[in-house]
Amino acid sequence: MRFMSLIRVDENTGQVPSQRLIDEMTVLIGEMRAAGKLLDTGGLQPTAKGRRVKLHDGKLSKIDGPFAEAKEVVGGYAILEAADLDEATELTRRFVAIHGDEWNIECEVRQIEEPGI
To answer: 112 Cβ partners below 8 Å, 6+ apart?
Structure first.
């Protein structure tokens, strides 16, 4: 089964990853890819560089970022291969724990719908 882990951050902090975090994350990503557990991962640009497309009552509109009402945003993602939600949660826990006390983040883990499965 595939799961998506959505990393939520407060993008208003201006915080950037330390060299320690980059180094440790590089090792963790390598280990998880080699084990076949991490299928893809990435960070997202700030909402100021993004756009929302909205459908409301049959009318399409677009809204350029930043999105004032959004404090916590999805700052990154990981697509995981796991036997079940418990394993996907444990893999996500490893990503979160590596951030140490430098960051305040939250991850949402959800199974990806796959037709016929």
So the answer is: 1, 2, 3, 4, 79
Q: Which two tokens stand for residue 34?
A: 């080699």
Q: Which of 98, 108, 103, 86 is nearest to 6 (CA)?
A: 108
Q: Name the residue with tokens 């915080």.
A: 15
CB 100 within 8 A of CB 15: no
Pull the structure tokens for residue 90.
């444990």
Instruction: Kindly state the helix (H) or strand (E) to which residue 45 belongs, with its residue range.
Output: none
pLDDT tens digits, one per residue of 63-108? 998 877 667 889 999 999 999 999 999 999 999 999 988 889 999 9
Helices (H), 18-74: 19-34
Cross-strand pairs, 9: 73
Model pTM score: 0.87
